[in-house]
Design goal:
With about 400 residues, the protein is α/β, with parallel strands linked by helices. It has three domains: about 25-110; about 120-330, Beta Polymerase, domain 2 (2-Layer Sandwich); about 340-405, no CATH class. The protein is built from 17 helices and seven strands. The protein has helices spanning about 25-30, 40-45, 50-65, 70-80, 80-90, 95-100, 120-130, 150-175, 185-210, 230, 250-270, 290-300, 300-310, 320-330, 340-355, 370-385, 400-405, and strands spanning about 135, 145, 220-225, 240-250, 270-275, 285, 310-315. Strands 3, 4, 5, 6 and 7 form a five-stranded mixed β-sheet that branches. The protein has a two-stranded antiparallel ribbon with strand order 1-2. Helix 11 links the parallel strand 4 and strand 5 (about 270-275). The longest helix has 27 residues, at about 185-210. The protein is globular, with a radius of gyration of 25 Å.
Length: about 400
């Protein structure tokens, strides 16, 4: 009779690590992670959100690095911070895994000190990638630059640089799921993602200026206003970015620069959407400040004032952007005096919900019943009603608004 072993192997097998793919044993042998010296690595791998995905990506990265895999392997065995960042990242996202495999040396960005992404650091990286310099004649506080690199090369470089920066944010965000690393508050992550979006579109604008005005200084003032989640600095990893343009003059050159910026941004970063502008997609892409003011005074619907709650000057001519904010903000806080204000807000919420198939409405987290959108609508309705008299409610982010509403006794 054969007696069972009295103790488990020191080296955990695929099953103990939560690996279920048939290829897991061979993948571990490929990496050389099937001995006692690899035990700490293996247990760290098991803590990734999807250990099988992380392992498959590591094998792809091993193949992409070739003889340079040795350096990464050695660092992973001794550096828990790198291990947490890399395993957290590739265990949660195949998109980041694809980026690392396409740019295998970019793992080094995750090594060593990794300060949080700021607007300034993101601007330096994004503008530097296309050799952008401040536009001649631009005011000191204007975020207006001219890129040296244009065309398809610019889009490829911007895409790679943006994904590197996004990877740094995500790696710091996810590292604590694998190793004992600092937990980044989710509001801080939203701020970093929004700052990166600002920097990315500033670089896209620099390429657009060089493309539309290659032989002369930019002859127009163009402000880009962030709306929605980006305006409130609560962006998430897969959000599109809503914007509105203000131009002086609002001529064909301004429209071409705005359109080119959107094309570059949508190709290199994320969907850039200007549908929240006056008259929506049927309206002019760029308008003067006076035209914006006239529209909101005479034609705007209640939901359009609701959207303005999150408006924020983002890039381009920041002084013009601030004038836009100062001119329209007072109208936001008198919108609740409009006839049928509450029914209009409720009707808009129903229209949004009707976009969701009936069978999904009870479990669609973003737009269905009891979803994130319901929270936003409730918060914004309370802000618009009580913000007439209480300036503490004049905040853009949903979390800040909830805090202010609670402090004021409204909820």
């Amino acid at each position: 009779m054969v007696k069972p072993p009295t103790s488990r192997s020191v080296v955990p097998g695929p099953g103990r690590l939560g690996l279920v793919e048939p290829s897991a044993p061979e993948d571990l042998r490929t990496l050389g992670w099937n001995d006692a010296e690899s035990t700490e690595l293996l247990w760290a791998l098991s803590r990734a959100a999807n250990a099988d995905l992380a392992l498959r990506t590591l094998v792809r990265l091993h193949d992409a690095l070739g003889e340079n895999w040795v350096a990464l392997d050695a660092q992973l065995r001794t550096d828990k911070s790198l291990r947490g960042r890399l395993f957290g990242l590739i265990g949660a996202s195949d998109a980041f895994g694809d980026h690392l495999v396409a740019e295998p040396q970019s793992w080094k960005l995750l090594d060593g000190d990794m300060p949080p992404i700021t607007r300034e650091s993101a601007l330096t990286a994004m503008l530097g990638s296309v050799d952008a310099v401040r536009e001649e004649g631009a005011s000191p506080d204007a975020q207006l630059y001219r890129a040296e690199v244009t065309g398809p090369d610019a889009i490829a470089i911007l895409r790679r640089t943006y994904r590197d920066q996004l990877m740094l944010i995500a790696a710091a965000d996810l590292a604590a799921t694998v190793e004992n690393e600092p937990v980044v508050p989710y509001q801080a992550v939203g701020h970093q993602l929004s700052d990166l979006a600002d920097a990315a579109l500033t670089a896209a604008l620099a390429v657009a200026v060089a493309t539309v005005c290659p032989d002369k200084p930019c002859p127009v003032r163009l402000a880009v206003i962030a709306m929605g989640k980006c305006g409130a600095r609560e962006l998430n990893y897969v959000s599109d970015v809503d914007i509105v343009f203000v131009a002086e003059p609002a001529d064909s050159t301004a429209a071409r620069i705005a359109g080119e910026m959107m094309r570059i941004g949508s190709s290199a970063f994320f969907d850039v959407d200007a549908a929240l502008r006056p008259e929506g997609k049927s309206g002019e892409l760029v308008r003067t400040l006076d035209s914006h003011i006239a529209y909101y005074k005479r034609w705007a619907k209640t939901w359009e004032f609701q959207a303005l709650l999150k408006a924020r000057p983002m890039t381009g001519d920041m002084e013009l952007g601030r004038r836009y904010d100062e001119a329209l903000s007072p109208m936001v806080w008198t919108a609740s005096e409009r006839e049928d204000f509450v029914p209009e807000v409720q009707a808009m919420r129903r229209r949004v919900e009707e976009l969701v198939p009936a069978e999904l409405r009870e479990r669609e987290l973003k737009l269905g019943r009891g979803s994130l959108r319901d929270v936003e609508f409730a918060v914004q309705l309370l802000q618009l009603v009580h913000g007439r008299a209480d300036k503490t409610l004049h905040v853009k982010s949903t979390v800040d608004a909830l805090t202010a509403l609670a402090a004021g006794g409204y909820i």
